[in-house]
Amino acid sequence: MARRWPDLTVLELLVGVDDHGSLSAASRHVGIAQPNASRAVKQVERQFGMALIHRSPTGSTLTAEGTVIAHWARRVLEDANLLLDVAEGLRAERSAELTVGASMTVAEHLMPAWLGRFRGLHADVSIHLQVHNSAAVFARVQDGTCDVGFVESPTVPRTLNSVKVAHDRLVVVVAPTHPWARRRRALTVAELAGTQLLVREPGSGTRTTLDLALQEYDRAAPLLELGSAAAIRTSVMSGVGPAVLSTLAVRDQVAAGELKVIDVDGLSLERVLRAVWRPPRQLDGPAGELVRLVRREGLERADR
């Protein structure tokens, strides 16, 4: 027959009677009502088959057997406290690890600086970065694989919390030898929609932003779908065709004259970069610290 373990609160009460001289004082110390304390002690007395407390009009004291039990109860409670200390230490170690998910554009152009500054402030935190498209980041945040994600998607699942952390803009880019590079007037939105473009795969923030912006127009089929902005950028520079990419991804090449930005009349592709995480709303620990750092940097850039 399996033994039943005594409740630790009852052991605290017995030790409290020994330390404070009465059951009422012990119950106050433990933080439970005296009637409940009395019932708990009687229950353990029935379990042990012996009287542990001598009750009298002037108060309660331990019996001889109760004194022996209280002695061993102290050792049990000490070990229980050690168990709680170990669990708390393990929790602290776990919280000192941070797994971040980031979409391609954010990971390539912003995350290195963000994580570098974060490491300078929190050298004790181990950081793991996972790079996916925005849809995959959402999925990994939702299933707990990532503590926090950073995406450029214009929409966020309703099951996740989010906050704006930065901005960027999508632009149409072509190689300098492309016919559009010699145009004197801006493209129309219809012309852009009707042109075969190099695009990211479905699920990426860049693709979603472009699809939403052109959803009311007749669209040409993609010229080519590629899994990263870097691959698209290289293809555009090689003359494969035009593309719509983040200014973060083409800034250096535009400045060097390797790519040319084409204006589109009446089309704005400004977008918001967001941090996303699972409930609750308040994001604590290293993940919360990272989001606050990133937001501060975004506000400082906006003020410049």
TrEMBL record:
It comes from the Bacteria. The lineage of its organism: Bacteria, Bacillati, Actinomycetota, Actinomycetes, Mycobacteriales. It comes from Rhodococcus kronopolitis. InterPro entries: LysR_HTH_N (IPR000847), LysR_subst-bd (IPR005119), WH-like_DNA-bd_sf (IPR036388), WH_DNA-bd_sf (IPR036390). Residues 6-63 form the HTH lysR-type domain. Belongs to the LysR transcriptional regulatory family. It holds the Pfam family HTH_1. This is LysR family transcriptional regulator. Keywords: DNA-binding, Transcription, Transcription regulation.
